[in-house]
Amino acid sequence: MRIFEEMESEVRGYIRSFPAVFDVAKGSEIFDEHGNRFIDFFAGAGSLNYGHNNPAVTEALIEYLQSNRIVHGLDKATVAKKEFLEKLRDTIFTPRNMEYKVQFTGPTGTNAVETALKLARMVKGRSNIIAFTNAYHGLSMGSLAVTGNSFYRDESYGVRANSAFLPFDGYMGKEFDSMSYLRKLLTDQSSGVDLPAAIIVETVQGEGGIHVARDEWLQELEAICREFDILLIIDDIQMGNGRTGTFFSFERAGIKPDMVTVSKSIGTGLPMSLLLMRPELDQWKPGEHTGTFRGNNLAFIAATKALEYWDSPAFAEGIVYKGKLFEKGVKTILEKYTDIETELRGVGMVWGIEFADHGFAGTVSEEAFSRNLIIETAGANGQVLKFLPALTIEENLIEEGLKIIDESIAAVVATRKNLQEGVLA
Ligand SMILES: Cc1ncc(COP(=O)(O)O)c(C=O)c1O
């Protein structure tokens, strides 16, 4: 670890939560440099929905590279790009009756968000954007302005203008009708909230702590956007690519966003981001929003291969099935610990346990790591233990991982009890 401490910036993060030097990875298992095996319930923060080194993807990549096919092509036409676009149209768009234009943005998620916000502002000629409490949309300046967590939003960055935050579904409790509140703000001349170019929302807030928006809430949000001529941007960077049980996370609500940001697992772990937009919104002039790394050909090859999972309904059915295994397994564990106040939230294959005691989830994650399971926390205070496994994870690994979670919670409970008894003694 010394070289990382010596040379790598203090900003390094996950390396601190999971202090091992990783080397080999296959499916949902990772091995460190000494050959120690870890089960992965984190899947590259949702970038590895198809698992590490998916064999079909690896094979296609090796063949592509060994034939000296083009790797970097700016945004020129390539066979790899052509085949990706055809596959995306035929496998994802056409069966869903979607007609989005595709823009390849810079390689990481925040690049797609920046592009969406810029285009929305340009098309509508308005600067304000509405976002939601606990939202996470990335950390470059534009995306940061619509990200809620104060840890990332230092005043000195000067990027917090032109955005307004509203309560996400459930933020103010079950009774509070945040959509009526939004409607009131938009109709009242004196609300202080300017008519926005767009509203950006995650259907399930991932980094924000696994908050699932109800279908009705999303439908009402769409209706308000239509009524007030506001663009609806769904940020599907973490919850898309099958995470919630359908390819796009908003399919369950039957809504039709104006723009969709897609990244993370679309490239199966290789960097690639897309902005999908209604064709009328594609008002860019040629080259007006450009960049060197847009459309990485290796990611096209990987993505085209991975989209084959969506050729039959079996894959989506498998997500729902395995999601239920997680839900049931976690519920069974939590029933054993009646003294701990928790809330389980999730859908498909994303689940989160919120602990009322804010230090608890982080300690469980540490205990789990010491037992060779990788699992992260989420939420503004790291208070949610977040289950984000690959969608391809095998059932025996789910079982093995959940057993480790059970042992880890038991260990934290025992340590706290000992500490308390020590204090009392
Ligand atoms: C919903 C959402 N949007 C945007 C981003 C930013 O993506 P990236 O970290 O690739 O820039 C993330 C990353 O976690 C995300 O979850």
- How many domains, as an integer? 2
* Total of DSSP H or I helical runs spanning 4+ residues: 13
Radius of gyration: 22 Å
The portion of residues assigned to helices is 25-40%
The H-level CATH homologous superfamily of the largest domain, spelled out, is Type I PLP-dependent aspartate aminotransferase-like (Major domain)
- Distance from N terminus to C terminus (CA atoms, Å) equals 40 Å
H and E order? HHEEEHHHEHEHEHEEEHEEEHHEEHEEEH
CATH topology of the largest domain: Aspartate Aminotransferase, domain 2
Number of strands: 17
The overall average pLDDT, rounded, is: 96
What profile does the largest beta sheet have?
Answer: 7 strands, mixed
Indicate the structural class.
alpha/beta
Strand adjacency order, main sheet: 4-12-11-10-7-5-6
Ligand set: pyridoxal-5'-phosphate
CATH architecture label of the largest domain: 3-Layer(aba) Sandwich
How much of the residues is beta strand, in percent?
15-25%
Low-confidence stretches: none
The best one-word shape is globular
Quickly name the level 1 CATH class of the largest domain.
Answer: Alpha Beta
